[in-house]
UniProtKB/TrEMBL annotation:
Entry keyword annotation includes Hydrolase: yes
Coiled coil: none
Protein source organism: Rhizobium lusitanum
Protein name, entry field: HAD-IA family hydrolase
Pfam families: HAD_2
One record GO biological process: DNA repair
SUPFAM superfamilies: HAD-like
GO molecular function, one term: phosphoglycolate phosphatase activity
Keywords: Hydrolase
CC annotations in GO: cytosol
Domain of life: Bacteria
Length: 217
């Protein structure tokens, strides 16, 4: 048996346009300039309050970051519903998940900096809900790269971290996996560079979703 844990944003779905727009509108609402999209990419994967504080160059989450987090969450659904703000699956992800789900020896899960509501929405609209039997979100655990998301998924499923594979596009995913004692596989189609993923501890890099099959099966 293996437990396969997927990150969401930048790994399953291409959500940078939406995340950046919501973040930019939040910063403007609080009197700041719109952040550069490259800056937004660098914090995707972190829990939202920590991501906002980091974009502001703050060492810790303060009251303003908490207020900005609340504002971000309040406007997110309306921005998501705008016609040009969709979050499509990356090419090849749907057949990959369907292929993996057909193997009884594999357990699939999600570990994400998204909210529980956000992850539930992504899984539902893509018909993935039956496939993902375990998940941890920003509402459940400390922010990546803390290993709790992985270790709690392992505890819930009765799996050992050494039999667990974490798949993600961010350095925080790789760091989280290694801290938990799991295998870390970086994906090249997301928001961090291959070089940064390897430097963060990736055991392997997948350049297309099909590449993941050889690392999992």
């Amino acid at each position: 048996m293996k437990l396969v844990l997927f990150d969401c944003d930048g790994t399953l779905v291409d959500s940078v346009r939406l995340i950046h727009e919501v973040m930019a509108r939040t910063f403007v609402a609080f009197g700041y300039k719109r952040p550069d999209v490259s800056a937004t990419k660098s914090i995707i994967g972190l829990t939202l309050d920590i991501a906002i504080a980091r974009l502001q160059g703050k060492p810790h989450v303060d009251e303003e970051a908490i207020a900005m987090t609340a504002h971000y969450k309040s406007i997110f659904p309306d921005v998501r519903d705008e016609a040009d703000m969709q979050t499509p699956l990356f090419d090849g992800i749907k057949p990959l998940i369907e292929t993996l789900a057909a193997h009884e020896e594999l357990l699939l899960g999600a570990v994400t900096g998204k909210s529980r509501r956000g992850l539930t929405h992504i899984l539902a609209v893509n018909d993935f809900t039956p496939y993902f039997i375990v998940s941890r979100t920003a509402d459940d655990c400390p922010s990546k790269p803390h290993p709790a998301m992985v270790t709690e998924c392992c505890d819930e499923t009765g799996m050992d971290p050494h039999d667990t594979i974490v798949i993600g596009d961010a350095i925080y995913d790789m760091q989280m996996a290694k801290a938990a004692g799991a295998t870390a596989i970086g994906v090249a189609w997301g928001y961090a560079s291959v070089e940064d993923l390897l430097a963060a501890g990736a055991d392997a890099i997948a350049h297309h979703p099909n590449d993941l099959l050889s690392h999992i099966l």
